[in-house]
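Dear all,

This email documents one entry for the complex benchmark we are building for the journal club exercise. For each entry we list the sequence lines for every component of the assembly. Then comes the predicted three-dimensional structure of the complex as a token string, followed by one or two observations. Please use this as the template for your own entries, and keep the labels exactly as they appear.
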Amino acid sequence: MAQLIDRRPNAKNKSTINRQRFIRRYKKQIKKAISEQISERSITNVDSGESVSIPSRDITEPTFRNDKGGVREGIYPGNKEFTQGDRIKRPDDQGGGGGRRASDSGEGEDEFVFEISKDEYLDMLFDDLELPNLQKNQLRKMTKSKTVRAGFTSDGVPTNINIVRSLRSAMSRRIGMGAEPRRRLRELEAELEALRQEIGGDGKRCLELQQEVEALRARIRKIPFIDTFDLRFNNFVQRPEPTSQAVMFCLMDVSGSMDRETKDIAKRFYILLYLFLTRSYRDVDVVYIRHHTQAKEVDEEEFFYSRETGGTIVSSALELTRDIIAQRYPATDWNIYAAQASDGDNWNDDSPVCEQLLAKQLLPQLRYYAYVEITKRDHQGLWEHYTHLLDSHENFAMQHIREFEDIYPVFREFFRKHAQ
Amino acid sequence: MSEPISSGADWTFELIEEYHAEIAAIAEEFGLDTYPNQIELITAEQMLDAYASVGMPIGYSHWSFGKHFIRNEQQYRRGRMGLAYEIVINSNPCIAYLMEENTMMMQALVIAHASYGHNSFFKGNYLFQAWTDAEAIIDYLVFAKRYVAECEERYGIEEVENLLDSCHALQNHGVDRYKRPSPISMREEQRRLKEREAYLQSQVNDLWLKTVPQKVAETEEDTPANFPQEPEENILYFIEKNAPLLEPWQREVVRIVRKIGQYFYPQRQTQVMNEGWACFWHYHLLNELYDRGKVTDGFMLEFLQSHTNVVSQPEFDSEYFNGINPYALGYAMMTDIKRICVDPDDEDRKWFPDIAGSNWQQTLDFAMRNFKDESFVSQFLSPRLIREFKLFSILDDDQQNELEVTSIHNDAGYQTIRQVLSNQYNLSMNEPNIQVYNVDIRGDRTLTLRHVPHNNVPLADTRGEVLKHLKRLWGFNVKLESLNAEGKVKNTEECAA
């Protein structure tokens, strides 16, 4: 007799270890692929994994094999019109038909494409950021209280009366208080009836009994239908809850001096910030504000890809941020983050204004404000003025990015500070 | 007549046991001799796992298995690939995996196909009997997995991984073709492990101690004989025994890869027969079930549909053509042998005087036990089948501009077609012939391989990479010489330090 074994419950993911080995071995290639793809990915798209493609020549397993060529004789099925001695043109390699069997190894494709899960993707992306550290230091979240039910109480305001509970306890009280008199009443009535049968109903004893019955009936009637004692009230308490919503303001200078590469660097920075926030908050809104001499709220597409020329007035974007916060994202309900990317250009007279705006109006409302200056030149007025803010404001940080490679370290620097 | 066992598509454990009992009874009547069966129900994901590790339930960990897993999973998810309905393992008891997605009909089909067809083939065929050890394979795999994991702990994952990469590159050249390997067993392996490690190392030391320092007066007669004396085709074996710089644990890992390669060697040589035998028997067993009224008409229709799919042979110009389908050829040949026994015509009597009109069960049993694909085709491929398949042979000579049709399905062609098809299944004609030819034991220890091309078929470009792997194992320079038709060295490729 055969043994029948149900293996379904156990030994799942037996190949996980082999899969991990694969990913471990090709980490370099996978990371390269991921960083190439990052610019094609929307900032807010972090829910899906990523399809990664790495060159298949990197992952072949070589063996000694016969190549095409030489003299071969092979058998094929399905002869239709051939007879012995026929000569036929050699078909192209890809032309189907008889010539296909040389490519039996199936290594035709140039790219090995596979999917990694969201977590694997994020881990790869955050790999250099030493994410474990970041995870330990959860972002501080603002708390907000929420009213929740907490059972029933016996006192409260009339609007909170729980009718069912109140009537139920009234009824049980009525039953409880009336039980003794009603039993006595039944006894007396029975006795009275017996007497009437016996002696006709007008003896002294009868009158007494009748009076007693009346008294009992009155007593039962007096039991109140509802009493303050019966009332039950729904109870509510206030419980503090961390808000799970955050809003992230992306501010970017789109004046003529910002080239494509600078914008790409900025985009990576924003993606990182977004990913980072989604690990702490359930809902993350993103507001894109671009500015040259005037600021404008735009969608992501326009934010990164449309070009404008003109001068630069940073304070216009800060003002717009302030206004949007006031209108849509009250600081009491939202965790507000802002990140500004710029090449450092600003109209000189505007920089002190920016400093004031940040210090007085924005920073008090924000969880964090990050300024990245992406430039290979020297710092200008804006950097100088922002530097003044560093000492007095813990939630303000600024960093200088020169190359792509600087993004991760800079990002780490930002949040090392912030997480403390 | 009796009631059908079941009528719906859903299976339950009780039903599987009932079907199995019926099939087992019929198989016994037909005289199929099998190992005890162990049937395991698995999910599609587990099936993908099993695929990745070449059907082995417990293999050591390696990234390449992960690669195959990922590739198969991708294709499966996108619907580009159906999964095999079963995987069966040549072990005692014989383990067959059934997928939970299968219908009841499919489970019965798989039981008949794997647990009785393949199982009896594993037990009966001479190649499997001589070259594999069904008793020990599972234990050996457990041993290998543990040993590799232990090495990873001791020497680091990367070190072990590199070694395995190199071994895998040569796995097909780690097979003894003519010499029966000693049987493997876990207890034995472990007992001998320590002993062998010490012994192997002493042997190697011996070789180099004796040979290396003896730089004394060289006379003509004293010119060192070739080492190895005879060319060695089992490259991994040569490495295991003679590579000067390998640590004992590395020799053991080489041995593990070699042993597992050896285990699969018979399977690669009996694909047509093995699948043909299994298809033949699932067809007969299930038809017998039907004749006895155990299954419904619906069951049979569903069965015939998948059976036909499995044993169909697309023609060479069809878009589905992917070489000769071993299921189709094997099934057709097995069925044809039965026909020749039961209902021979004049042609059969002329071509197969020995078996025409004989007892078909005995004849098939004989065929199953004593052949491999190559000899099976050259012995039993009948003219009638050649006509049915409309087989023709094509000569492809890269010196000619055109292909030549050398023979077709007519009187003149039968013998040639049989011979050519048989060669097609001859592994030694399809795998490059590469042997360890010499080691410069008195000089810089360069290892020389010789490639003898068959019919001028060149080696693929991957050879450079493989040489690098070989060099990693050998530890010194490695050379590959290719001979021309006259037996002279045509070109030499070197992988130097």
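Observations: DSSP finds twelve helices and 13 strands in chain A. The first strand of chain A starts at residue 3 and ends at 6.
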